[in-house]
């Protein structure tokens, strides 16, 4: 069976796996973005706190994905839980780092001007600093998403959802007639999803970043 015949026969399962893969990455990115931006907001004013946050999230990223999932299985069990936990943790570094860099890069004169007209610290953060820091934050989100697309495939090791199951089935049946088709289908599916997500982020950037401050 050639590759195109395999896709025709397995298209329904492949679409289901692709949807689960995309859904897992999207949900984890929402959580990682919320946590990462919050960490950035809490630490960007202090040099040591910002360095600590960056170092801590960098350390998480050095843990091999298989090891991370293996360590999580005894704690949270098999399936979705270790996948979501691992992906969220892996997605933090680019968002935390870019949030800190973006917030520190806001022109202090703008912040002082907002303070001078009576805006509270929260209002300055929400209405001045975060909007101006949004371009680097969005870049961090894009980097995290591309990274998690590949890492999510490893979730199949813990019975997680996604296209990694197709890849692992192919690896487990090396030598069979469809082994290569399975690995190729799973891999190309992840590449296509990554490109679609990145295109969506480009569109979001064009809609949310004023022309004058686009990077």
TrEMBL record:
Pfam families reported in the protein's UniProt record: BPD_transp_1
Record localization: Cell membrane; Membrane
Transmembrane portions of the chain: 24-44, 65-93, 183-204
Superkingdom of origin: Bacteria
InterPro entries hit by this protein: ABC_transp_perm/SBD, MetI-like, MetI-like_sf
Bilayer disposition of the protein: Multi-pass membrane protein
Entry keyword Metal-binding: no
Keyword annotations of the record: Membrane, Transmembrane, Transmembrane helix, Transport
Keyword Transmembrane carried by entry: yes
Domain ABC transmembrane type-1: 18-201
Family to which this protein belongs: Belongs to the binding-protein-dependent transport system permease family.
PANTHER family: GLYCINE BETAINE/L-PROLINE TRANSPORT SYSTEM PERMEASE PROTEIN PROW (PTHR30177), OSMOPROTECTANT IMPORT PERMEASE PROTEIN OSMW (PTHR30177:SF4)
Name this protein carries in UniProt: ABC transporter permease
Source organism of this protein record: Streptomyces lasiicapitis
Lineage of the organism: Bacteria, Bacillati, Actinomycetota, Actinomycetes, Kitasatosporales
